[in-house]
Amino acid sequence: MTDAAPGKVYLVGSGPGDPDLLTVKAKRLLEEADVVLHDKLPGPEIIGMIPEEKREDVGKRAGGEWTPQEYTNARLVELAEEGNTVVRLKGGDSMVFGRGGEELAHLAENGIPVEIVPGITSAIAGPEAAGIPVTHRDYTSSVSFVTGHEDPTKDESAVDWDALAATGGTLVVLMGVGKLPQYTDALRDAGMDPDTPVALVERATWPDQQVATGTLDTIVSVRDEAGIEPPAITVIGEVAGERERVLEFLEGY
Q1: Pick the CATH number of 8-120 from 3.40.50.1860, 3.40.50.2300, 3.40.1010.10, 3.40.1550.10
Q2: For 164-173, how does the pLDDT look when each residue is reduced to its tens digit (9 = 90+)?
Q3: pLDDT tens readout for residues 18-77
Q4: Catalytic site residue 60?
Q5: What is the DSSP letter of 6?
Q6: Which CATH architecture has domain 123-249?
Q7: Is the preceding omega at residue 207 within 30 degrees of 0, hence cis?
Q8: Where in this chain does the record put each Tetrapyrrole methylase domain (predicted)?
Q9: Does the active-site annotation cover 40?
Q10: Which of 40, 90, 175, 179 is catalytic?
């Protein structure tokens, strides 16, 4: 480390992908940053706003290319120690299944000034873009957010599907398209009605957003027929049926 004071790292959520949904602060920081380390999930238009010479791709994709988290952690510290203003840009909100907490702790342990800039989480914005409210007083007043892609080094899942099935609320599963058969089976085995509405929202708010709907019993075959791929969000619960009621008048995405 040099004798100069370290720079600063901003952990920035980019929202679900539409550049109009960037916060004012996030846009300003992208313009002011010396370096931007970004994931794959910020929309292509947002990434395209960043000059190529100051952006670094440290993204991950299930089954595809990826950057080890240890590299990203070390790179953030290295750049800050050189005196840079660094934006760590993530999809959605960096603290919602985005490893933002890990990076925050690592920066603090290394004495790097850090600021968190919240973003619109895709866990809520994704369903909304498809015309689905995650809560609705006619159906449910609770919602649970679940990751479908846990740390592969863990001995067992931390998700209690039996308990989630018993809540009667909306379930929103992020990064869960690949494991859709496993957790829909688990929810049925836990007693959830096979006719419960389910929606899949792929690339929410992106220009190529795609939505597919079915039931707990049919959604796997619906996924396969529609060709839904990551990144996508799964919405399980009665609210998922609201899309059909409003679709004729739904504008936007």
Answers
A1: 3.40.1010.10
A2: 999 999 999 9
A3: 999 999 999 999 999 999 999 988 988 999 999 999 999 998 655 556 889 999 999 999
A4: yes
A5: P
A6: 2-Layer Sandwich (3.30)
A7: no
A8: 8-219
A9: no
A10: 175
